[in-house]
Design brief:
Elements lengths: L9 H4 L6 E2 L2 E2 L5 H14 L3 H15 L16 H4 L3 H19 L4 H15 L12 H13 L5 H23 L5
Antiparallel strand pairs: 1-2
């Protein structure tokens, strides 16, 4: 399968070492939550570009100031032109691939801590405001729900709420940590 065609085999990625066990937390999510996330991710995983664009359009709607961070664009241009630009499409794809990495790792605590703190740290240079992260969970839920259609459930929403809260907190921690030179 190509990068754009990832499907997640729930037997291989949910069962196994990434489990919540007593005080030794290895994953941010329990089995049922991870399964709900995998099932919903599989609904959109073959169209990451499309859903990444949907996510960023929602982000620009909820937090228009984020547009100014994309200095390569002239935001006086029609939005249709902007979302067709290679730079925008590339960033939307990278965002979705990072999210997919969290899903593939089963939201393993150690791996997610490293990945999303590192991503946050890299965004420090773009003058990303911590407050912009407040709308990211809503944007992700909007996007996944759109892809799931009638298969969206309260359990799926609850699982994604936990996952996105964790990812944004880790990203924020990385963002607020002065990057090492």
């Amino acid at each position: 399968m190509g990068t754009n065609m990832t499907k997640i085999d729930s037997e291989n990625h949910v069962k196994g070492k990434n489990v919540v066990t007593g005080n030794d937390i290895k994953s941010y999510l329990n089995y049922q939550e991870r399964q709900a996330i995998i099932d919903s991710w599989n609904a959109i995983s073959t169209e990451k570009q499309k859903y990444g664009t949907i996510l960023f359009l929602k982000l620009f709607e909820l937090e228009p100031r984020v547009k100014s961070l994309f200095t390569i664009f002239d935001f006086n241009e029609p939005l249709e032109d902007i979302i067709q630009s290679p730079h925008f499409r590339s960033h939307a794809m990278r965002f979705m691939q990072s999210l997919e990495t969290g899903v593939l790792m089963g939201f393993d605590k150690e791996s997610c801590d490293f990945l999303f703190k590192s991503l946050g740290s890299r965004h420090h240079f773009y003058d990303l405001k911590s407050e912009f992260l407040d709308v990211i969970p809503e944007c992700i839920l909007h996007t996944i729900k759109k892809g799931c259609g009638n298969n969206w459930s309260n359990e799926t929403a609850d699982a994604w709420k936990i996952a996105t809260k964790v990812l944004c907190e880790l990203f924020r921690e990385g963002l607020e940590t002065k990057p090492k030179k």
